[in-house]
Amino acid sequence: MDSFQRFLKNLPKMQLEEQVQEFRHEALRSVHMAIGCATLLQNEIEGSSQLSDEVQEWSHKLLHYLDEMRQLLNVLAQPPDNGTSE
Fold first, then answer.
1. Could you list the residue range(s) of the whole structural domain that residue 71 is in?
2. pLDDT tens sequence across 62-85
3. 23 Cβ contact list (under 8 Å, min separation 6)
4. How many domains does the chain have?
5. Is residue 2 part of a domain?
6. CB 76 within 8 Å of CB 24
7. CA max distance for the chain
8. pLDDT, tens digit, for every residue of 8-48?
9. Does residue 61 form part of some domain?
10. Sequence-ordered list of residues with C-beta below 8 angstroms from that of 29, at least 6 positions apart, any chain
């Protein structure tokens, strides 16, 4: 069983605060891995003259949306402010 499957299995056993922190960590890890894989795929696509422009366009879109997800998860991964900074 990989770490993600262990995380899913153990999630219901955790306290809410721990669930939130672990979810943030796993979500960021997954997005960073997906971005890495998509980047490798894009490098392969750009190095091949046999693929259509449409495939390259979809590769760029994939990286764009993964980056958006990464940015959103980075915001989630920050500890809550709780209004103490005012």
1. 27-77
2. 888 888 888 877 776 666 666 555
3. 11
4. 1
5. no
6. yes
7. 57
8. 788 788 888 888 888 888 888 888 888 888 888 878 777 77
9. yes
10. none
Q: What is the 3-state secondary structure (H, E, C) of 64-77?
A: HHHHHHHHHHHHHH
Is the residue at 52 inside a domain? yes
Task: Name the token pair of 82.
Answer: 């709780």
Query: 3-state secondary structure string, the chain?
Result: CCHHHHHHHHHHHCCHHHHHHHHHHHHHHHHHHHHHHHHHHHHHHHCCCCCCHHHHHHHHHHHHHHHHHHHHHHHHHCCCCCCCCC
The one-letter amino acid code at 12 reads P
Taking the C-alpha atoms of residue 23 and residue 27, their distance in angstroms, rounded to an integer, is 6
> Is 5 part of a structural domain of the chain?
no
Question: Is the confidence at residue 86, as pLDDT, over 60?
Answer: no
